Sequence to fold (859 residues):
Amino acid sequence: MPANSLQSQSQPESQSESPSPPSPYLLEMRGITKQFPGVLANDRVDFNVKAGEVHTLLGENGAGKSTLMNVLYGLHQPDEGEVRMNGEQLSISSPSDAIARGIGMVHQHFMLVPTLTVTENVALGLKSDRRPLTDLPTVEKRITELSQAYGLQVDPNAYVWQLAVGERQRVEILKALYREVSLLVLDEPTAVLTPQEVEELIAVLRQLATDGRGLVFISHKLHEVMSVSDRITVLRDGHVSGETTPAETSREQLAQMMVGRPVKLVPDKPEVDVGEVKLVIKDLEVEGDRGNLAVNGISLEVLAGEIFGLAGVSGNGQRELAQAIAGLREAKSGTVSIDGTDVTNAHPSSVRKAGLSYVPEERMRDGVVSGFSVSENMMLLSRRESEFARFGFMRFGAIKEHSSNLVDRFAVKTPNIDTPTRNLSGGNIQKLILARELSSSPKVILAAQPTRGVDIGAAEYINEQLAKQKANGCATLLVSEDLDEVLALADRIGVIYEGRLMDVIDAKTATPHQLGLLMAGVAKAA
Amino acid sequence: MNLLAIVDFSVVEIFAARSGWSGFFTLSTLVVTIAATIRLATPFVIASVGESVGQRSGVLNLGVDGVMLLGAFGAYYTTLETGSPWLGLAVGTGVGAVMGLVYAFITVTLHAQQGISGIGIYLFGLGMSDLLFRQLVGTPKPIGGFEGLFEFSVPETRFDVAYPDLYNHSILVYMAFLLVPAVTLLVNRTTFGMNVRAVGETPEAADSLGVSVTRTRYSTIIIANSLAGVAGAALALEKGIFIQNITNGMGFIAVALVYFGAWRPIGVMAGSLLFGLVNALVLQWKTLGIISGATAQLAEMAPAAVTIIALVVVTNRIGQPSALTQPFRRGAH
Fold:
């Protein structure tokens, strides 16, 4: 039914404009070039989508995926190139142009208004039949029909702030379906979902494609890309580095196309004999920003020579837990001790003195002073040591030498050590933080989302460094939303859900399915 | 010249007929107090309900007071020249709308800092209204023909005969309080209102669905400033006079009342009435001689003190639009 209405919509347009034979493609983007100050974000990119297919756009952060899709959605104007739908050339200067042409987008950061209801969010921007008043009952009725047809269950009268992440995504898809889009772009739609939710999403996407829509799937998770795509286009440094299909390629090949060199996707897991307990968390309770109990009685121990992976959907207390351990947030009750020293509610400097190194989740906010130079950020921890300062004055010679050493040792790509840190890429900033944190030979490492938003090459390096520290007898608490990363690195895996530790599983026997159920709050499924 | 001295001569006259605490505890004094409260709250209701519309779309205007001054002068001068308070009211509204257009251009099109721009608008309004007054009028001249036109009469009942003060207000008072349900309806039940709420909360989301953030904010800013103009006009027409800085900071109180009312017209109205009540009581106690001398001077701080205390106690930020004071640029994060 929606497919028919789409065809009847598009045919008159293509007849009126082009005398040439009808295009086989629903969407054609030809020679798109977009220059930003200092960066060529898109360099003559060709990309097309047929009706009824899922076409994946794969690439690292900064490869130009978002720029290309923002051009399609009217958020950026291309410097060169053209966009065609059903053979007809379009000029899209705003999102409303894109919507009028049947292009829908599910943005990575959801475009929802939390204080409006689901129905209001869908109705936003639509013409009402009862102008100037809203006509919400009609919209609600259609939402119910659509959600039944595609298995997108959501309460139309709920406020968006009340919804879980997976439900919010359904609202985004419903918004697009309500507007009868013929082309739907999904930007990193699986980043925040549990494995079960990902499976459900992929089923919905396949159905949408079967109904005759064209889908653009943007992701960097290779196994999902392999399972959902009909075709795959890989972008690297702003240009197309290859086009292929899942049948013709492998995950390793895709990674190589993304990075430009062979990549080790699964890091070696060194076998290390575990030692004594280094990090003990006991009955910890921590309040969140709104006074809620974000961490609700967590107890865990991490041993020397072990990586303990803490998996979970974001927003389940990970941030508060990490901050409480690092001394950045008050613990309401319970204790934290590092290498035998009680550091509960201790000053961050005391926590560090006890042997903690902290790789924070918000690296630009909590990890570096973005306006400081590389060398200044390297020195933030050891600024008071006599080697680098005398009578409160910095010894620039020693500082320079030390920073240069670290930059070399941790392969931080920077023009020089005086470059402002904000000019570095995400991956290199993370390497800088790692260099600073690991050079102090820590006893416990707390690494929160260490590879999120980091390119594959840098992620590979960061994971190697964590494995190396483990071999040195360091106890590591790795907080990550990326199940693949947790499975690849950790020795034991705990799953956090609504501030509680659901279960702790040996990584050797853990499966994504089992972890996914725990992440969704389903207690010990077996 | 302070606010209370020019507030409401009729109220002063009525109060003056009695004296001391014995005069305070009478039914007729209560009626007069309520009447005065409503009358004194009127400019606040108009200005702050208007400002709440602007803030719901994410735009803060600290220049309300300046726009009120310009609206007051515009209404005063027009009435003085033409003898028609209706024409005066229209000009006051128009002056507000023009100031709204200017403020929208500065904050929406030029993406300027709202706090600083608003102070600029205030200083402009303060200086310009005074300059125009001196150049065009010179010495204060009262404007007349006002009471008769704006007097509101209700069907005669026994209650009416006994306490006509309760509802014999100018038509502006009734219009002001009708604004409350009108704006509530506008914000909650119309597509425009839904756009306003979305733009004030998550402008990127509204933009991605084809709602023009620019057009929505221009509209709300013009509505807010027009109403600030009306509030100023109401002030000048009620007094029948214009003097330098006639608002005496009322516009700033109006902005505070938006926060106090948690961005809801009904809450804003409640705040305005509370403020009107405190003003009325101070005025009344002074007139009745309950407080005098230095105490009376001190008591004049009561409205400001009550505002600050109320704002501290009612720190309800739940209704605050997330995008308040944040300029919107497409594609910028």
Residues 2-17 of chain A form the longest helix (16 residues). Chain A touches chain B through 30 residues (CB under 8 Å).
